[in-house]
Predict the structure of CAP-Gly domain-containing protein.
Amino acid sequence: MATADDMIEFNIKSNVVSSEAIRRFKRSIHIGELKNQLELITGAQSQSMKIHVHDERGTKLFDLDDDARVLGSYNVHSKMILQVEETNLKQANMFEDTTDVPKYELTPEEYATRKNTAKQFLLEHKIGKYNPAAQEEHARKEKEKEQHEQESANKINVNDRCEVMVPSQPTKRGTVMYKGDVHFKPGVWIGIRYDEPLGKNNGSVEGKKYFECVDKYGAFVRPSAVTVGDFPEVDLEEL
């Protein structure tokens, strides 16, 4: 049975996997066998593997470069780092690359003929989008939501000063520059030119211009997030 003095503990790193490992090896193990064990730990191929020894601070000291030598014949001690280098990464990663692997896909028609599928279960039990009552309730709530947004929009006019309150974001001040439909989302939207560079665009989205402003000062929000009023412009010099 190996004693504590017969074993050396290493921190093992590699260029194949991002995770690290801590393992103990016998001083009497040959480097060739060490490579075989490191292959199981790191995925690096033993025949194309190089083992670099670093100190605890990460400074490289030497290589374990003779498969016939035993580990203990090198000046190694516990807590050192074994940096395992796979010199043929393409070969090591070939089984992880699924780019050229043909994918088996069912057409909607083929899937519909299958038995005991998730879709069949949902249909039979009228769950989720297959529940007519739930769909009607969802449609009703969406309609009410849009009615509320339209009512809010009716109180907003271009050139109005405003505050914008979006959940999980700080309150921002700006000027209303646009009100109406947009091509990227359904419903009515309000285009804002903020007083500070807290926006996402310059009044354009996906190449379509809705209003003019400096980049990062423009944004589009739902009407319910906008409160119009006598809000003085933010003075950046006072912040």
Summary: Residues 98 and 110 are 25 Å apart (CA to CA). The first strand starts at residue 7 and ends at 14.
